[in-house]
UniProtKB/TrEMBL annotation:
Residues 15-195 form the Thiamine phosphate synthase/TenI domain. It comes from Paenibacillus curdlanolyticus YK9. One of its GO terms (biological process) is thiamine biosynthetic process. Condenses 4-methyl-5-(beta-hydroxyethyl)thiazole monophosphate (THZ-P) and 2-methyl-4-amino-5-hydroxymethyl pyrimidine pyrophosphate (HMP-PP) to form thiamine monophosphate (TMP). It catalyses: 2-[(2R,5Z)-2-carboxy-4-methylthiazol-5(2H)-ylidene]ethyl phosphate + 4-amino-2-methyl-5-(diphosphooxymethyl)pyrimidine + 2 H(+) = thiamine phosphate + CO2 + diphosphate; 4-methyl-5-(2-phosphooxyethyl)-thiazole + 4-amino-2-methyl-5-(diphosphooxymethyl)pyrimidine + H(+) = thiamine phosphate + diphosphate; 2-(2-carboxy-4-methylthiazol-5-yl)ethyl phosphate + 4-amino-2-methyl-5-(diphosphooxymethyl)pyrimidine + 2 H(+) = thiamine phosphate + CO2 + diphosphate. 4-amino-2-methyl-5-(diphosphooxymethyl)pyrimidine binds at residues 45-49, 77, 116, 145. Its cofactor is Mg(2+). GO terms for molecular function: magnesium ion binding; thiamine-phosphate diphosphorylase activity. It comes from the Bacteria. Keywords: Magnesium, Metal-binding, Thiamine biosynthesis, Transferase. This is Thiamine-phosphate synthase. Binds 1 Mg(2+) ion per subunit. The lineage of its organism: Bacteria, Bacillati, Bacillota, Bacilli, Bacillales.
């Protein structure tokens, strides 16, 4: 049985955009993320490994207001306290971050909790632990998460066959390779640099959504 949170994710969320540190010159976090929402981002995650906790809280406040305006969920990477403070919809945790059980206990049953996974065992553990969705990656090598070995589209295909909760393919995904990722079995994709570093983030998001819709039709 899928929970209500999981089915919400299942139905509505196809393009997942994460904030970054490197925006296109002259652009700000609020401006870029609003463009992604205009272009069709279905969910936004705040993640900036270069920012202090105070800066992140400030960014979270800006994004909470913005995502509310567009009716899109806001997820906070790693920081349960910040998620609670700004009333975010949930958190995303890495394999080395705080535990899923702790996040669920502190955020409650309505929170969306996602887990990064890099192999099937991680995925099945997150699923058994009550995660609402998982990240599957990095599919390709990426400067956004340096030093992490690419799992290739093989893991995407494995996840599509074996994981029952929604999964989002992530890592090095661009408009040039998203068709391969979708053909490997992904139905949801996540991007950072391809979107937030682009001169026109809205146009990139629209193109991602078109690829996703085309893959749905072909399936
Ligand atoms: N998590 P880009 S890969 C934040 O595999 C993140 O868990 C990953 O950024 C994982 O779209 C990644 O710029 C970076 O490659 C994604």
């Amino acid at each position: 049985m899928m929970t209500e949170r999981q089915s919400r994710f299942h139905e509505g969320i196809r393009l997942y955009v994460i904030t970054g540190a490197n925006y296109h010159p002259g652009r700000t976090l609020a401006d870029v993320m609003e463009q992604t929402l205009i272009g069709g981002a279905d969910i936004i995650q705040l993640r900036d490994k270069t920012a202090s906790q105070r800066e992140l809280l400030e960014q979270a406040r800006v994004l909470r207001e913005l995502t509310k305006r567009y009716g899109v969920p806001l997820i906070i990477n790693d920081y349960i306290d910040i998620a609670l403070e700004v009333g975010a919809d949930g958190v995303h945790l890495g394999q080395d971050d705080r535990s899923l059980a702790e996040a669920r206990e502190r955020l409650g049953q309505d929170a969306i909790i996602g887990i990064s996974t890099h192999q099937l065992l991680h995925a099945l553990t997150a699923q058994a632990g009550g995660a609402d969705y998982i990240g599957v990656g990095p599919v390709y090598p990426t400067g956004t998460k340096p030093g992490k070995a690419a799992v290739t589209t093989n893991y995407v295909t494995e996840a599509a066959a074996s994981v029952k909760i929604p999964f989002v393919a992530i890592g090095g995904i661009t408009l040039d390779n998203v068709d391969t990722v979708l053909a490997a079995g992904a139905t949801r994709v996540c991007a950072v640099s391809a979107v937030v570093g682009a001169p026109d983030p809205a146009a990139v998001c629209r193109s991602f959504k078109e690829w996703i819709a085309a893959a749905d039709t072909a399936r």
